[in-house]
Amino acid sequence: EQFMDAMTGVSMANFEASAEKFDFSPYWTMADIGGATGQLSCIVARRHPHLGCTSYDLPIVQPIAERRIAAAGLAGRVEARPIDFLTDEFPAADLITMGMILHDWNLEHKKMLIAKAYEALPVGGALVAIENIIDDDRRHNAFGLLMSLNMLVEFGDAFDFTGADFTAWCMEAGFRECEILPLTGPASAAIAYK
């Protein structure tokens, strides 16, 4: 819970920017995979009241998220549900989000998570991954490059990635189109449309 609180502070500005900059109007349901305290779901639900948002994380995290969602006054609009996203299939939703999730894993796991998102989305649905996307030339986003090194040191085979990397993995999974939406500082939303 202490770690999640630390990540809440780090993620706040980027989650708010994504809620403001991304067009949520075509979507009615959102599943935030690895949603921790439910922060992204709460921010999006508050800004886009038409959207039903559910935060998914490990069963041990669910009561923490439920407390945070209730404290935000959104208990009737945002749900917390259990998932082990490495072994469980993703729930069906119009929009699947992952905030700072993909960079925690090696290439095999990244591709597996993207493929699960593709399978859970309807045609016209989208995957939004909020990350410190490295520029394709790997020359300008020094923070993203250093974060990639940090992931490698911490986990042995995890890494951050470029927009071109994300696009290639998503196209391989079957997505039809991808884009990178800059957020705040070094972070962007990598978006794949089914």
Strand content: 15-25%
Count the beta strands: 7
Count of alpha and pi helical runs: 6
List the uncertain runs: none
Shape: globular
Note down, in words, how this protein is organized:
This protein is α/β, with parallel strands linked by helices and 194 residues long. 40% of the residues lie in helices and 20% in strands. It contains 6 helices and 7 strands; from the N terminus they run H-E-H-E-H-E-E-H-E-H-H-E-E. The protein has a 7-stranded mixed beta sheet, sandwiched between helices. Strand 4, helix 4 and strand 5 (126-131) form a beta-alpha-beta unit. The termini are far apart. The model has no long low-confidence stretch (mean pLDDT 94).
Topology overview:
Layout: H1 2-21, E1 29-33, H2 39-47, E2 52-57, H3 62-71, E3 78-82, E4 95-99, H4 107-120, E5 126-131, H5 142-155, H6 163-173, E6 177-182, E7 188-193
Parallel strand pairs: 1-2, 1-4, 2-3, 4-5
Antiparallel strand pairs: 5-7, 6-7
Concise overview:
With 194 residues, this protein is an alpha/beta fold. It has helices at 2-21, 39-47, 62-71, 107-120, 142-155, 163-173; strands spanning 29-33, 52-57, 78-82, 95-99, 126-131, 177-182, 188-193.
Keyphrases for this structure?
seven-stranded mixed β-sheet; 194 residues; alpha/beta; globular; 6 helices
